Amino acid sequence: MSTNHKRPPSSLIFIFGGSGDLNHRKLSPALYNLFIDNWMPEKFDIVGIGRRPYDNVSYRQHLYKGIGEFSRRKDDQPGRWDTFSKYVSYLQMDAENEAEYEKIAEIVKQKEAEYGEHPNVIFYLAVAPQLVAGIVSKLGPLNICADTKCTRVVVEKPFGHNLESALELNKLLASMFDEKQIYRIDHYLGKETVQNILALRFANALFEPIWNRNYIDHIQITAAETVGVEGRGDFYESSGALRDMVQNHILQLLCMIAMEAPVSFDADEIRNKKVDVLHAIRKLRKEDVHHNAVRGQYSQGWMKAKEVAGYRQEKNVDKGSPVDTFAAVKFYIDNWRWQDVPFYVRTGKRMSDKETIITIQFKTAPNFAFPPEAAETWRPNRLTISIAPEMDIRLRFQAKRPGQGVALSPVDMIFSYKDAYIEQEPEAYETLLLDVMEGNATLFMREDQVAAAWKVIMPILEAWQQREPVDFPNYAPGSWGPEDAEALIARDGRNWVTLPAPHQEN
Ligand SMILES: NC(=O)C1=CN([C@@H]2O[C@H](COP(=O)(O)OP(=O)(O)OC[C@H]3O[C@@H](n4cnc5c(N)ncnc54)[C@H](OP(=O)(O)O)[C@@H]3O)[C@@H](O)[C@H]2O)C=CC1
Ligand SMILES: O=C1O[C@H](COP(=O)(O)O)[C@@H](O)[C@H](O)[C@H]1O
User: Fold this and answer.
1) Which of 26, 32, 107, 396 is 20 to 30 A away from residue 230, measured at CA?
2) Index of the ligand 2 atom closest to the CA of residue 249
3) For substrate, which residues are the binding ones (predicted)?
4) 145 & 193 share domain
5) Best substitution site from 14, 19, 22 to test ligand 1's pocket, by max atoms within 8 Å of Cβ?
């Protein structure tokens, strides 16, 4: 265990949604791992908030189950959980009832006295978006640390339900907190492989000269999941794949791939460069949406010899639900670097494999000087960045097969995290929670980024709202989504790339 790093200042963390799925699966395991790695402050406390009737003991037991199931480490550190869990408590309260917020103010006072200093007071809002504004408007008047500005508010995605509600929420937050106190989280930005995109592009001289319309044919981003909505039907019915994944995670990935070189790693410099990309994405006209965007919903069926329910049969889902569990879109970025280069993105639940990959497909070599028989296996260069669950970067190029004559075949040069490093990479939420405690907002969304991302998505959402899907459900579990998604890219003479094997031929 490394101890010679500077730990963040004292922090008191309140998690609204402390009894929910996100905290169980991601936040608590992340905080526990930070504790094991000695990254938690010397003085800290974590208070989970929810309406369910836990006491401290049953709450800790509930979280401990989550560690066993979802933490990258499980419980392989004897005695550590017992020590950590003493810092964890549960506050049963209805977040919609203003009178109950006094309990929070009391805890803050008590901890300030215990620590002998003002800690960071962090409010993590791991609740459905429709609760966020109500909570924020009740937290503001508590005036916690108003003098020191040590309060921080972390807002989970999706930030708002559409452009209008996101703008309203931004206004509300701005009326109570400084922008520096607001952390709009998108956990994809905390993933090691996503952060590495900037290193790949801007710490190497090799790629940047060819990273443009002159050399790149097209770009693909796939974020496919095998899971269904996993009991989150209630949430998903007011969301859908486009809001849940494209508006935030996928557009952020696209920004990292498409942004111009930053002049520094200052939080605002990176965010400025990313927001420029969002502004440059061509807004679809409503009449063009059907040609450039495809939606889908999974049916009942089989996955790995196991029968699975269709989306409309999931808990808390309407029997005739029009909600998309799959979305694919073709975007264009209207600027000098990317003019006419299509960015195909897709995401879906209950798909064939869990894989998040970005593919940069280069143009073919301008002239083919090899004998005609070598042309059969001639493939353009391709750079594939696997974000999860595989974590690697592959560069495909043509090689001469051993033997007489000239036979070509595509091969991959592979950088794999697990082969290159012995350190275990932190989970995204570990990185992001540490950043919040340290006050580093680089990996968080600024208000104008959120609004710009909604502006990209709104024409699609509106067009889909106006025309109910007639053919839902339209893809089988375990497939790669609806046929129309294949057509979206096939029309341009291209095809979707799935997890690359060294000699895959697509
Ligand atoms: N789950 C995931 O993997 C991910 C989730 N997110 C985001 O995190 C947020 C939460 O999602 P998730 O955890 O899945 O949702 P859940 O439905 O599992 O949890 C919702 C939480 O909100 C609490 N809550 C609801 N109403 C109140 C209330 N009136 N007063 C106090 N607490 C209340 C619930 O507590 P109780 O029932 O005890 O009242 C529960 O703890 C969403 O915005 C989602 O988009 C983001 C990335 C991944
Ligand atoms: O934000 C969300 O992300 C998860 C997928 O995250 P990943 O890190 O496992 O790729 C998704 O399942 C969920 O629906 C969405 O809200």
Assistant:
1) 32
2) 1
3) 187, 191, 225, 244, 349, 354
4) no
5) 22
ipTM of the shown complex: 0.97
Please state, in angstroms and rounded to a whole number, the distance separating the CA atoms of residues 209 and 396. 18
Cα of 384 to ligand 2 centre, how many Å? Answer: 21
225 known ligand binder: yes
- Per-residue confidence band for 59, with pLDDT thresholds at 50, 70 and 90: very high
Instruction: Just list the catalytic residues.
Output: 249
Both 145 and 276 in one domain: the answer is no
Is 243 annotated to bind a ligand? Reply is: no
Whether ligand 1 lies within 6 angstroms of the CB of 128 is answered as: yes
> From the CB of 388, is ligand 1 less than 6 Å away?
no
Q: Ligand 1 test: best mutation among 97, 135, 161, 235, most atoms within 8 Å of CB?
A: 235
Q: Over the stretch 117-134, which tens digit does the pLDDT of each residue have?
A: 999 999 999 998 889 999
**Burial, 106: exposed, middle or buried (Cβ in 10 Å; 0-12, 13-18, 19+)?**
exposed
Report the Cα 228 to chain-centroid distance in Å. 17
- Under DSSP, is residue 48 helix (H, G, I), strand (E, B) or coil? strand
Q: What is the dihedral of CA 48, 50, 53, 56, to 10 degrees?
A: 10
Query: Mutation test of ligand 1: which of 16, 21, 91, 131 has the most ligand atoms closer than 8 Å to its C-beta?
Result: 21
Structure tokens given for 220? 């693909």
If one counts the domains in the chain, the total is 2
Examine residue 195 and state whether it is found in any structural domain, yes or no: yes
Q: Which of 231-235, 283-287, 307-311 has the lowest mean pLDDT?
A: 231-235
Average pLDDT in the 92-96 region? 97
Mean pLDDT for all residues in the chain:
93
pLDDT band for 499, please (50, 70, 90 cuts): confident
CATH of the domain at 81: 3.40.50.720
Q: Are 308 and 439 within one domain?
A: yes
Supply the DSSP symbol for 10: P
CA neighbor of 411 nearest in space, from 375, 381, 372: 381
Q: In this model, does residue 500 exceed pLDDT 60?
A: no
The residue whose C-alpha atom lies closest to atom 16 belonging to ligand 1 is 20
| Ligand lying nearest the CA atom of residue 27 | 1
Closest residue to atom 4 of ligand 1, CA basis: 22
Q: How far is the CA of 379 from the centre of ligand 2 (A)?
A: 33
Upper half-sphere CA count for residue 146 (Cβ side, 13 Å): 8
Determine the Cα–Cα distance for residues 171 and 136; give it in Å rounded to an integer: 11
310 plus 459 within the same structural domain: yes
pTM (whole model) above 0.80: yes
DSSP code at position 242: I
Answer yes or no: is the C-beta of 427 below 6 A from any ligand 2 atom: no
Does any ligand 2 atom lie closer than 6 A to the CB of residue 244? yes
Helix H or strand E segment including 297? none
Contact in structure between 50 and 92 (CB atoms under 8 Å): yes
Give distance in angstroms: CA of 156 to centre of ligand 1.
Answer: 10
392 lines ligand 2 (CB under 6 A): no
